[in-house]
Amino acid sequence: MTLPAAQPVAAASPGVVDARQWPDVARTPHVPARAAVARRLLGRIARRRGLRVELPGARPLVPAPAGAPVLRLHRPDAFFHRIGESGLIGFGESYQAGDWDSPDLIALLTELATAPETLVPTGAQWLRRLYVQRPPATELSTPDNSRTNIHRHYDLSNELFALFLDPTLSYSSAIFPTAADGAPLASWDTFPAAQHRKIDRLLDLAGVGPGSRVLEIGTGWGELAIRAAARGARVVSLTLSEEQLALARRRVADAGLTDRVEVRLCDYRAAEGEFDAVVSVEMIEAVGRPFWPVYFATIDRVLAPGGRVALQTITMPHERMLASSGTYTWILKYIFPGGQIPSTEAVRQAAARHTGLRPARCDSFGPHYAQTLRLWRERFTERADEVDALGFDLVFRRMWELYLAYSEAGFATGYLNVQQILLTRPEAAR
What we know:
By secondary structure, the protein is α/β, with parallel strands linked by helices. The protein folds into two domains: 23-132, no CATH class; 138-327 and 336-429, Rossmann fold (3-Layer(aba) Sandwich). The chain is 45% helix and 15% strand.
């Protein structure tokens, strides 16, 4: 069955934000000149994109067409001051604080995610200099910082992730069956099979079978390692998440595969051994652009002659990647510190410049990620009481609702894509 449409997480009220846990959400900046500019800019965006921006009392900021996506401002002064001070970071923090909402968050974010480079008029691009920040050095994904970065997201709670992931505990895009027009046929009942379809395609791409020596970079909760071992492979899987390490080892043991799977708490840079296949699912995004050379060089170093590399990665257009590289975003600040989504061209360039590996195949399935995220988002918001019972407050729940919805909109519009990429050494491909 398909889950019912989830209702947005309730708005926070002034004074309920824990300033110790959420200092920048609790603090409302005071930047009158910038707030005035933000208000005018939002009016222009609303007119050009056909959005309805509602002030308190349902008063429109500017005229809007019927059926337009709605941005409902509960606390407009706070909203405009946050936007004026820190742009899209302020936009996200304003949602966390409950300054704004939408009766259809996906419709609103989908419109904003469509050609986002055109949101700010060309003549006003200089305004970015007022609020764009660089990522802090403490979040650069060095060996010392990486474990902290991973801990902030993946060690939140195994129980939390189990509330909204499917039973395979796969935290990456599934591949659903498709309709005659190619649209994904996504439902909660078909979710586990769709995750296994994704894993099996990646293992097939890497040529994993009986006797294969497999290195997995990024364990997750162990489903790929278990599935590879069930084929007769021997797997070494690397993770920096202590929560994932414990549960993955337990799941491997429960599957009776401890003789075939070793899960290590280990940075990818410290990988040792020789492997017939290297697989990695949506882990390169956490590596960070400065470290893509060492990531690919490490894979090249441990790959046996004739070996194959199969990566699943989120991608974005190359020009957008270059434009956003080095910019501190709301997603980096609150969700994935130290990360960077690559482009397909960036993967090709990094492999070509630092290894003997070359892309031999690339399969895209972005619409499937939009549906994967929809199912996660609906499940997450449906189980809000259980998230609360785990000790996560309203600001956290709104943060995750925005993260999941923002990501869903990105894939739905094609601003983001997801691909499975096969890398081989040219002599091995002949």
